[in-house]
Amino acid sequence: MHTICFYFQVHQPFRLRKYRFFDIGNNHHYYDDYANRTIMRKVAERCYIPANKVMLDLIKKYGKNFKIAYSVSGTALEQFQLYAPHVLDSFRKLADTGNVEFLAETYSHSLSSLVNKDVFNAQVQQHSEAMEKYFRQKPTVFRNTELIYSDQIGADVADMGFKAILTEGAKHILGWKSPNFLYCNAINPKLKVLLRNYHLSDDISFRFSNHTWNEYPLTAEKYATWLNSLSKNEELINIFIDYETFGEHQWAETGIFDFLKALPGKVLGQTGFVFGTPSEVADRHQPISAIHVPEAISWADEERDLTAWKGNELQEDAFRKIYDLLPKISRCRDKDLIQDWKLLQTSDHFYYMCTKWFSDGAVHKYFNPYNSPYDAFINFMNVLSDFTERLNNRFTGEFEAEAGIGELEKKVRFFQNEIKKIKAKQKKVI
Amino acid sequence: MFGWEFPPHIAGGLGTACYGLTRGLSHAGVEVLFVVPKTYGDEDQSYVRLTGAGDITVSKRNFSFDEVKKKITFLEVGVNLLPYLSPEEFERFTSIDISESIKSTGSVFSANYQFTGGYGKNLMEEVARYALVASVIATENDFDVIHAHDWLTYPAGIAAKTASGKPLIVHIHATEFDRSGENINTSVFDIEKQGMEVADRVITVSNLTRNIVIEKYGIDPEKVITVYNAVESVKESKEIEIQKGVKGKIVTFLGRITYQKGPEYFVEAAYKVLQKNDQVHFVMAGSGDMMNKIIRRVAELGISTRFHFAGFLKGEEVANMFAMSDVYVMPSVSEPFGISPLEALRSNVPVIISKQSGVSEILTHAIKVDFWDIDAMADAMYGLLNYEGLSDMFRHYGKDEVDHLKWENAAIIVKGIYESII
Fold this sequence. Notes:
heterodimer, A: alpha/beta, 2 domains, 5-stranded mixed beta sheet, 52% helix, B: Rossmann fold, Rossmann fold, 15 helices, elongated
């Protein structure tokens, strides 16, 4: 059984507006509504709508033989509702075909998997509920923000009841092994792990329109030939790409939609591969071994690790500061604060603060609304300062009372100890 | 008078000082023709006649090019030098090449030179061209004294002196040693030295600077006179309705974020204060070449929720910032004078200044620390934030003191110098 598994990431962050020091305490609206709306409409027009249409047509044409998977972040969902409801409708239509699987992730595309299991759990739960609500599917397969994965994260995901997880087939964890097999988690073998074949995935998402590429131009036929040239015992090809590849990163003029339209036909006609969703892959294939990932990996940049979000002091500090607020926010019932807290955790905010250059820098700069990572950091920290003040204001009375009680309890314990000591001395004397 | 900047198009204290001085002089009955490289049309010309060097037509028959060129050939070394970038320009400069618009328009017999009036890559060329224009101005106008501010205008001053024979005063607002520590740019040093030697008098803004002039430039002490800068008095303190958003007190640093101003010491002292009391907010307003380094240090120390960057502030925003501040700090490594603490005191903000600044010579109601002494700085910040008696006293007496530092007084001294050399 040879399966090719297509998965597409659909995500938009709530971008922050220019928030200056003088706004702190005075203005609590953090988001650049104009930019978010404009970008959402633009991407909908160039990518989501035409790509969804192509997918629907392909499903109509090939029926059960063409299957795909998406994960739609909570922030993208909210923005569909706010700015482009017709996109949500088009995804619903795809869901209704029965050929499309929706995966689970953290609601706001956050890095909470690196912080705290309970918070992580809650965010995933919230996302799954949204998937049930909008697409009538309860996800059984999970993919973490930017495919971040480690043995521990896998174990945590397994505990939540998922049967499989998607991640990157990074060179440094595979070594001589091939990503074209199903693996399982090293701690909990019940969790199947699908590894992205980055070579074949990036051929479509990055290199497709690159004239200097020696394989340019890429046609569906050529791609099918490559699939055929793989060794016969490699049974699984995982193509995981950002949905914006179709129309946004690769413009329609490059022929990306024509490629997409022709691909299923060539794959089904000329190769031995069939299309499958990640669930089907987990059910049909046997894991060949466990995959050991002691340090977290991701699909970002050359390093395929966490340095895109946590590589420098700015990111580390911002990350620590926002999650330091966990104790307070977990007791907060204010809807606005909770919403802001969710939206501020989106991984993109940290991504913008990255100071890496050269081949990866270009990618970072393309999507970056800020002029420099330092601007990104200052802006985010200003927003966070205001958020922190609001949060503290909610709790001042409570905390002071608590602090008071804590102090008293300490005193009581101290005196109890003293009493014990004195009693002991008394006994000796007597 | 030759200057390089004039409010509101300023990058630092130079323009502010020139404006104040010219106002003072006009009150003292001295008529001033102020030349800058470029006028924008929105400057306040009520006290001074302002001319842009780009507006002067240089006719090639007016003077002998060769003689002027002889005196300024040493400027033609193409130096890639950035002595004093304005914050906006700095930002642009680091990302793209500023295409210079140095066009010579006009006929065979005359030319107009365009000036950008900034601090970019072609600074030396502009300085040279400024000198050419200066000699024209000198021959076409009637005046008693030439007064040149800072090294950018010394060649112009020299050219004017040569063309007209009138006495020259050079005014040192900052020396190359202040700007760059020990790694001075020798071309700039040479221009400064030549200016000082050719001039009939040298005015420095503080004794600190006067000593540098005498020792490092070897100028005769008889020729060097200190005239302290002052600060514009506010007509009346408008009640600035600024809503201070952050809770807690604010300690401010306002200035170019560059080596000379000692921003890193501010950060370290801030860290120490935050260890004792984390309800204080620190604000660094301004931009400069060390900004990114400072941001990284702040992140490294983990104080980024209490340490904010306000960016470069202009006009009213400066007043608003002072209105919100509880303490103002100027940890300058080497400040020839330092007008900003005076502006802070004027807005009722107690100040902490480094001993290595000119203004510390005349201010009594300010806390003075060595710029490197972070413990003392932190101590002073903590004291001013927590001990009301201390800050009240500084606010009260400091404001009084500043009210007495008027440009009119400085102008009278300068007028006296003029009269002594005519």
